[in-house]
Batch of 2 targets.
Target 1
Amino acid sequence: MLRRIIWLALAGLAIAAPPALADSHWNSQMKSAAETASRSAGGCTITPHSHGMLTVSCDRRDQATLTYSFPLNKGGRIHGTPWCSVTWWGYAEVHRSWNVVSKTLRVTVTVTDGTATLSTVNVGYYT
């Protein structure tokens, strides 16, 4: 009996999933670290370099905030959780978060406690 229920559930998913997945489209975008929509040094030093890189140096008590905006495709709606990544190196605390505002995916990068050189910010999402 349990096998039959599992089989029926899997069959139902197999029938229902393709139309839902057919409407989804993977989108990805990349920006150089210098292409910020806004930035707040917050007591830190932000130094631009060639090839769109930024070096951010902060003491423990200071925090730099960099915001990146990515316009969304297909009506500005995301299905599921977007993927976002920051390429950087150095010795600092680097964190990222995201939110969607007015058909735009915004990624906020914060740097504290050290020096980090940021290269790119990447996002991926289903619409």
Note: The beta strands are 26-32, 38-40, 45-48, 54-71, 79-101, 104-126.
Target 2
Amino acid sequence: MADLRGPGGCPWDREQTHTTLRGDVLEEAYEVVAAIDAGDDANLREEVGDLLLQAVFLSQIASEEARFTLDDAARGITEKLVRRHPHVFGSESASDSGAVLKRWEEIKREEKSNSEKAGHAPSALDGISAGMPALIHAEKVQKRAAKVGFDWDAAAPVLAKIREEIVEVEQEIETGSAAALEGEIGDLLFSVVNLARKLKVNSEVALRGATEKFGTRFRELERLVQAKGLALDRMTLAEMDAVWDEVKKGSKPK
């Protein structure tokens, strides 16, 4: 990577910055997850390598600006792992994974407390990365708030909130305010994530599954339309819906 970004190297690599690589980092992380879900070790090995490249790339850029090096990053995570596993590297003990996670969070809070800047009031939401995918970020924020008791006791009030948010979306559709509509749809999505969390459903996984199901069914719709000698771009929505219903009936477990 140093050669690629050095004199006589690659023009594209030399032009990259931390900001321009943000999308690539997310894409490579998602491709690692896809390879895990597919159970494809050969692809997983390749995707882990691609993700590792992003860590090297980001660190190389930082080292050129004398900010930090790959060694610094590796040393930092090693020290953190040792510090947060006192039951392995220290004298403490842990009876199960629940105890491990509880102690991990306690140590994280201690670290944040020690590094608080003057004038900055600590928050239960401190340390949550804003760079995560929106669904995961929303769920983490909700979980942190729930830890201090700011949470509904059951799913029913969340369902009521979703219905309320739908009404507010409908109202903004009527007013025609694009900015307000975006905000209301955001509130609706946030409430749906909250419902998933209360029901112990991972919203990221659920949406990914729904998207994959749609993709599978849409491809089958295309196949059936072609088999009928038709073309999607020449069909009405009602005609496409009729074929879609065929696809759905065929995909239901017997």
Note: The mean pLDDT is 91.
